[in-house]
Structures are given as C-alpha cells and as structure tokens.
Specification:
Length: about 650
C-alpha cells in the first residue's frame, strides 16, 4: 500500500477508535506545564482562592499535578491520595461533571473527605479529559472557608478547563501522530524486509529463467529426439565452414527415410522415434569429427563433409545406405527402411549453405520420385526446380482464371461392352504453359495447400455433371472422382460429400470415390472412419493404382473397398512380362475373392483386352475403349 494510502487508513482506523493510545504514558511537556502553572496562578488570583489545582488520576490514585503558587496553599506537587477515599476530585472524574461544594462540613456526604484535614471545606472542580474520553484528572479551586462560587467564577473555571482540555487534545494528537509514524516506520521496515526477500526471490527467478532460456536456446538449435543440430544451426555452422574452406570441396548430402510415416502408423510413434535415434547413432558412428550432421525434418537429415573427393562421397553414400538397410530390431519388431539421398557440392553448385541444403533436398526429391537411392544435383535438377516454381506461381491463379476443367474417361463392363461410368480427370490449360498434365501439378497443389480449393472445384463440377447425366442415363452409371490424401484427411470429408450429393440431387450410388494407398498410409483411423461413412450412405470407394504400393495386400484385409483398380503398369506389360501377367491374374482373383469389382486401367491393345476378359476382370478403362474427353464429347459419344 502506498505511504499516503496507508496513513489514511491508519487515520481512518483512528477515527473509529482502532488506534490504541495509552494516555497514561503521555507526558506533559515543560512549556505546557509552565503554561498551566501560570493559568492556575492567574485563576487563583482572580478567584482569590488559596488553592487552585490540576489533579491527575491514575488507575490507583490521584495526585497533585500543578498547584497554584498561593499563600496558604497546603497542596504540593505530587501529593497523592489513593482512590476510594472520597476525594472531591474522584467524584468529578467518576461523574465527568462539575462538583460544587460550598461547605463540606455542612454536607453529610462530604464532611469526611480527606481535604477537610487540610482545612479545605469549599470546592468547585471540573473534569479534565483526553479526547478519547479517558480521564486526565481535574481542575479545581478550593477554599478554607464556606464559599458559594459565583456563576462567573465557575464559567471562568470552565474556560480554563477547555483550555487545558485543548492542550490535552493537542498532546493526544501529537502522540497519535507519533504512534502512526511508528506504525508506518514499522511497516516500512517490514516492507523493506519483504522487498529484500522479494528481490532475493527475483534474483533466483531470473537465474532460473536464464537456465531455462539457455535450454530453450539449446532446443532452438538442437533436436530433442536425436540431440543433433537442427536446420538453422546446421546452416550457421556450414556457413562458417564454407567461409573458412573455400575453394576446398564440401559435399552436402540430404537424406530421408522413405515412407517413414507408415512406420509410425504401423508400429507407433515410440518405435518410430527409437528408429530415428538408432539410425542417427549408426550414421554418427562413421562420420569424421569435422563432418556436420543435422536432423532437418521428421525423417530427413543432412550432412556436410568438408574436403570431400569423389571416393569419400561414394563411401559416405554407401555407409548411409547400409545404415538404413541393415535391419533395426526394436521391441519385437525387425524393421528395414530404405532411404533416398540428394547430393550437392560446394563450390560448384553453390557457395551458400542454405542454397546447398535446398539443392541437395531437391535432388533427394528426384530420388524419391525415381525410386533411386541417390541423385546428384545437376543442371537438370535446377531446371526441374525452376519449372516447378514457374508452374506453382501460375497455378495460384489457374482456378480463378478459369483454366481448370474436367475431362471424362469411360470405363466399360467387359461382359456386355456397355459404358458403366466415367472417371473425372482434371485438366489445366494455361495460355503460356499450354496443357499441363495433372501428374505435374497435383502434387504441387498438395504441397502448397491449393488442393483443397482445386479438389472442391472437381467435386462440384463432377457431381453437377453426374446429376445431369443421371437424368439421361439413370441405370448403373457412375462418376469416379480422384481424391487427394490432403482432402481425405479432413475428418468431415464424408459429410462434405453427403452435402454435395443432396445439393446436386445425385443418388449416392452414382458416385465413386477413388483413393490411393497414400491416404491409408497417412492416417489409418481417419481413413477407415471416412471410408465406412461414405459406404454407409451408399457411395462406392475404390482403391486406385493398386499394386504399386508395397503393402497393398494388407490394406485389402483392413478396409472394405467396392472396387480395385489394377494399375496401368501391370496391364501395359501383360504381353511381354510373365511376372506382370501373373500378378494381374492374382489381383483379379483376390478382388473377386474379397467381393470387389476389379477395373483394369490403361488398356490400350486388343491383346490386353483379351487377357483381362479371359481372367474375368469386371471392367476395363483405357485408350482402347475411350480417351478422356470433355463432357460434351462424352455425352455425344456414349449417350446417343
Ligand atoms: P489416375 O487416377 O490413375 O488416372 C488415370 C490416368 O491414366 C489418367 O491420366 C488417364 O488419362 C491415363 N490413362 C487412362 N487410360 C490410359 C491408357 O490407355 N494409356 C495411357 N497411357 N494412359 C491412360 P491423367 O488424366 O494424366 O491423370 C493422371 C493422374 O492425375 C491420375 O491418375 C490421378 O492420379 C491424377 N488426377 C487426375 N485428375 C485428378 C483429380 O481431379 N484429383 C486428383 N486428386 N488427382 C487427379
Ligand atoms: Ca484414378
Ligand atoms: Ca489409376
């Protein structure tokens, strides 16, 4: 509480009697005493009284405090009498009112009082009181002869009484102030001690915070799981290293564990984390002390090796491959996980740390797409990056500029050669870039988040088109729509489809949703829930590109799909490749066994058509039956 407020509170407490002043301990200062002496002398002279006194009472007795310097005054300062002996003054104090006895001898109530012994038979006294109502004593005039004090003398006595009471009030106030000051001082003292303690606590807290900040700084620079530096700290170390070593060669290898998400999904995050730690340890074990090593993303790492020649490079690459390919034993699981790498070199590819990482990362992306274990950054990689950037910047406005549209490719029932549906395929026609195939821009849209907007456009357009065609071709005709994992991951995807069906008034049976294994890999629980929901309200779900992922068969047991689409790569090779022929046969047989319809994709030749028919595949889709075309052309070709 601030000083002023505190004082106010104390004063307030005082007003209401909370401040405890002990009046018996208030001393009358000398100058006041002298004033009182003069007052008494004056009064005695005016009234012509042998004794005018100021008496002071205590808990046990009453004594002469000031006595007039008058002749024949029998009272001396400090003369005292114990209480209870019937002194005039005691009664005045008790009643807190004036007592006027003209002749005690004639008054049976007073004829025994102690003053008579001193010859004083007339008395007139008034109480003196502290402001808190505790008694100080009296002021009184006494006479040795009968005396009726006149009204004016009594008033005079009252004046003096008031004057002394005012003095007492002043003393009281002073002592009250002293008391308040004392309390304040104590409080200040207390506050000072408290402040000292607080400041001690603060210093401790600051120290603790500094420790935390230090550890935050650590976590800002290091990855908690593996203890490796993170991207930022790697860039700063590499920058220092490059500044020191140019033009000596430095090799940057960006590497990632493929499909690491599926490890997390299949075995759980604890196993996933352990695997990352073990992998880190393996890599660390063969790195030299001047090699920088960091974890830059989930399952992505980067190393920078200074003074690295091509032999060193090959050795490093092989060691990383071996680190990932050697089985990991975690709990009861034995796991192998392939990795892919991208390599960039300083100073030839760049002399800038961030750029080197970016280029090595881009080369790794190419390894990922090609399925090769490693890729060196080249001019072509650079071109690909630039092209991707170019595409991406144009794609941003594609939708609003009306550059996106849908084509429809028919699929046929192989038993009766009738068209039973169409797959909606996205087309992007840009005035500068021309026709950009979906394979090139869909993954870009997935990366920058545009896929939601684009996917919605596809859903609205295709469902609206299907509703139109349903009127013309109500029997067993359906539209198949490709859904990106990013869209499917949304937990309200099924509800969104349900709303669109009712918006366009399309029966659920006229819609098929095509998903790929990527969806199942990313979040099994959401996927399972969404698939079930879609099927519950009658939408078919088909597994696209079947056979290209490496755990396809296990998914067939976990999820119930309505349709299986055999990937084009098997069909293409049917005539030449015995193994693909056998695989296609097996897929068709499995599909049938699990009560699914099977579609063969990419049928281009009569021989392929003959083969799938002989294996009793249900449906066929491919250039042989019909290429993707606009809605108008589709309608003209198949519905007339
Ligand atoms: P997909 O879902 O496997 O679609 C079939 C692709 O194979 C289409 O390529 C189609 O034109 C092509 N195709 C069909 N029959 C034949 C054939 O006999 N021979 C050959 N060589 N190709 C054939 P497209 O239209 O270029 O689409 C490529 C991929 O892009 C699609 O593969 C699909 O994954 C994706 N895609 C297309 N439209 C969409 C879409 O609206 N949303 C999403 N998320 N993905 C889409
Ligand atoms: Ca498809
Ligand atoms: Ca496909």
């Amino acid at each position: 509480m601030p000083y002023k407020a505190e004082l106010k509170k104390l004063q307030y407490d005082h007003l209401f009697g909370h401040v405890d002043i002990n009046t018996s301990q208030i001393d009358v200062p000398d100058d006041m005493f002298n004033g009182w002496q003069k007052t008494l002398d004056l009064l005695a002279e005016i009234v012509d009284s042998p004794a005018v006194l100021i008496m002071k009472v205590t808990a046990t007795d009453i004594s002469v405090f000031t006595t007039s310097n008058t002749q024949g005054n029998p009272y001396n300062r400090h003369d005292s009498e114990v209480l209870g002996n019937g002194l005039y003054c005691e009664t005045v104090i008790k009643n807190q009112s004036e007592l006027h006895i003209p002749n005690a001898l004639k008054d049976p109530e007073w004829d025994q009082n102690p003053d008579i012994k001193l010859g004083m038979i007339a008395y007139c006294g008034l109480p003196l009181t502290w402001p808190d109502k505790t008694p100080f004593g009296t002021i009184c005039m006494l006479d040795n002869q009968e005396r009726e004090y006149s009204q004016s003398y009594r008033q005079l006595l009252e004046r003096f009484q008031n004057g002394i009471n005012a003095n007492l009030a002043h003393l009281y106030q002073q002592s009250e102030l002293q008391y308040l000051n004392q309390i304040l001082e104590n409080n200040v003292q207390k506050r000072t001690t408290e402040l000292a303690k607080l400041s001690e606590k603060l210093i401790k807290e600051i120290e603790e915070r500094r420790v935390i900040e230090d550890s935050v700084d650590y976590y800002k620079s290091y990855d908690a799981l593996t203890g490796l530096p993170n991207r930022l700290s790697f860039i700063s170390s590499l920058t220092q290293q490059l500044n020191a070593s140019i033009p000596a060669n430095t090799t940057v290898i960006y590497f990632g564990l493929r499909n690491f998400k599926s490890i997390n999904n299949s075995y759980g995050y604890v196993v996933g984390d352990k695997l990352l730690q073990l992998f880190t340890q393996r890599v660390q074990s063969f790195l030299s002390s001047d090699t920088l090593f960091a974890r830059v993303a989930g399952a992505e790492f980067v190393i920078a090796q200074p003074k690295c020649d091509s032999t060193d490079e090959i050795q490093l690459i092989n060691q990383i491959i071996t680190s990932s390919n050697t089985p990991f034993t975690i709990a009861e699981f034995t796991i192998t996980i392939p990795c892919c790498m991208g390599i960039a070199q300083a100073p030839s590819d760049s002399e800038n740390a961030a750029e080197l990482i970016q280029k090595a990362g881009a080369a790794m992306d190419i390894s990922k797409v090609n399925g090769s274990p490693y890729t060196f950054f080249t001019k072509q990689t650079q071109l690909n990056i630039e092209q991707r950037y170019h595409l991406e910047s144009n794609l941003v406005d594609a939708l609003k500029n009306g550059e996106l549209s849908l084509n429809y490719q028919p699929f046929f029932c192989l038993k009766n050669n009738k068209v039973i549906g169409a797959e909606a395929l996205l087309r992007w026609n840009n005035p500068i870039l021309g026709n950009v195939p979906p394979d090139q821009f869909i993954n870009l849209a997935e990366r920058n988040g545009q896929i939601n907007e684009i996917g919605n456009f596809v859903l609205h357009t295709a469902i609206a088109q299907a509703a139109k065609w349903f009127v013309i071709q109500p029997q067993n005709f359906r539209i198949a729509i490709n859904i990106s994992p990013v869209q499917f991951r949304n937990s309200s995807f099924a509800e969104h489809i349900e709303n669109l069906l009712s918006l366009y008034n399309l029966p659920a049976s006229a819609l098929e949703i095509e998903i790929t294994e990527g969806i199942l890999l990313q979040d099994e629980h959401v996927a399972q829930h969404t698939i079930k929901k879609l099927q519950q309200f009658g939408v078919r779900v088909s597994l696209d590109d079947f056979g290209t992922g490496y755990s396809s068969l296990s998914y067939l047991q976990k999820y119930s799909f309505n349709t299986l689409k055999i990937d084009r790569c098997f069909i293409t090779n049917i005539e030449k490749n015995e193994q693909d022929r056998e695989l296609s046969k097996a897929i068709i047989a499995i599909g049938k066994k699990l009560d699914m319809h099977v579609i063969a994709e990419g049928v281009e030749t009569q021989a392929q058509d003959d083969f799938i028919k002989s294996e009793e595949c249900d449906y066929g889709q491919g250039y042989l039956y019909g290429k993707p075309v606009t809605a108008d052309l589709f309608e003209k070709s198949y519905f007339s």
